[in-house]
């Protein structure tokens, strides 16, 4: 079955850009069966949907983050990526990548998550 | 955006008992496009229910979902020790997708 794995720096300085990659295994992004999302969770808090991308490159973003977010896809590497600019301490969170079956909007599978801390 | 309010914040029960978790939306969730997830410490959320009442693959039938419009319920019958976790609801009828703040189910 499809599995996801996040990777990227665990520490980012304030005002810099957070960059994460999600590698998809057990299936091809090119199959078109999924939309691919990023979701984050500050420590001890709830979940926030950041945005999603389809294999074509079409994206949808949460308006609360839209001005700072870019999600891209690299079908040759079976990966999709998140960039979040001008980060502050409020962006410190566990970041998850997740699959959204046929774009319905519910998330399964999920990556294990990666903690990103924004600190100087 | 649609705000989801879950209640109670914490639910204290014992194994073998039944649990009822509520999720109320600030406006109608179109198509009953509501999902429920279970999250244990240090783990990613796990999909339990989608479409308000459809169980995800591999989810035991003691988990059931119901509701429509603005009021949704997750019911867990006969709690097992592994069911004690945090539960989140999520609406996907209107972008941006939003989650509730969670209900902690504790022993």
Order of helices and strands of chain A: EEEEEEEEEEE
What is the average of the pLDDT values of chain A? 96
- Number of helices, where a helix is a run of at least 4 consecutive DSSP H or I residues of chain B: 0
Find the structural class of chain B using helix and strand composition.
mainly beta
The total count of helices of chain A amounts to 0
C-alpha-based Rg of chain A, rounded: 13 Å
Strand content of chain B: over 45%
Low-confidence stretches of chain A: none
Low-confidence stretches of chain B: none
The percentage of residues in β strands of chain A lies in over 45%
**Mean pLDDT level of chain B:** 96
Largest interface: A-B, 20 and 24 residues
Structure description:
The complex is a heterodimer of chains A (120) and B (107). Chain A is an all-beta fold and 120 residues long. In chain A, 0% of the residues lie in helices and 52% in strands. Chain A has strands at 3-7, 11-12, 18-25, 34-41, 48-53, 59-61, 69-74, 79-84, 93-101, 107-110, 114-118. In chain A, strands 2, 4, 5, 6, 9, 10 and 11 form a 7-stranded mixed sheet that branches. In chain A, strands 1-3-8-7 form a 4-stranded antiparallel sheet, with no helix packed on it. Chain B has 107 residues and is an all-beta fold. Chain B has no helices and 11 strands. Chain B has strands at residues 4-7, 10-12, 19-25, 34-39, 46-50, 54-55, 63-68, 71-76, 86-91, 98-99, 103-106. Chain B is globular. The A-B interface holds A 45-49, 60, 62-64, 96, 98, 104-108, 110-113 and B 1, 33, 35, 37, 43-47, 50-51, 56, 88, 90, 92-93, 95-102.
List the helices and strands and how they pair.
The complex is a heterodimer of chains A (about 120) and B (about 110).
Chain A: E1 3-7, E2 11-12, E3 18-25, E4 34-41, E5 48-53, E6 59-61, E7 69-74, E8 79-84, E9 93-101, E10 107-110, E11 114-118
Parallel strand pairs in A: 2-11
Antiparallel strand pairs in A: 1-3, 3-8, 4-5, 4-9, 5-6, 7-8, 9-10, 9-11
Chain B: E1 4-7, E2 10-12, E3 19-25, E4 34-39, E5 46-50, E6 54-55, E7 63-68, E8 71-76, E9 86-91, E10 98-99, E11 103-106
Parallel strand pairs in B: 2-11
Antiparallel strand pairs in B: 1-3, 3-8, 4-5, 4-9, 5-6, 7-8, 9-10, 9-11
